[in-house]
Amino acid sequence: MSDAIVEYRKRREFRTQQQSLTEAQRDTARLAKLRYRSGVTTYLEILDAERQLFTAELGLAQAQRDELLAVVQLYKALGGGWQP
C-alpha cells in the first residue's frame, strides 16, 4: 500500500511540474505572437513556440493519465472493490 501512495505522490508532483511547464510554454507562444505582430521577429518563432506548446500539452495529458492510473492502483491496494 505504501508503494501505491508513493507512486501517486510522485505522479502528482510530476503532473504539477508539467502543468507549470505548459503554462510557461503558453506564455511563450503568446509573446511570440506579440513580437510577430510588432514586426520584431519572423513567423517561424510563432511556429516553434506553438510546437513546443503542443509537446508540453501532450506531456501534460500523459502526466494526468499517469496520475489517474496511480489513483486506481492506490484504490486497488486499499482493497477497493477488486476480487483477487
General description of the model:
The protein has helices at about 1-35, 45-75. The two termini are about 15 Å apart. It has about 80 residues and is mostly helical. The chain is built from two helices and no strands. About 85% of the residues lie in helices and about 0% in strands. Helix 1 (about 1-35) packs antiparallel against helix 2.
Features:
rod-shaped, 84 residues, mainly alpha, single chain, 85% helix
Write the SSE topology.
Elements: H1 2-37, H2 43-77
Contiguous low-pLDDT stretches (5 residues minimum) are none
Strand content: under 5%
Structural class: mainly alpha
The averaged pLDDT comes out at 94
Overall 3D form: rod-shaped
Element-level helix/strand string: HH
Number of distinct helices: 2
Main pleated-sheet profile: none
Radius of gyration: 19 Å
Helix content: over 70%
* Number of distinct beta strands: 0
* First and last CA, distance: 15 Å
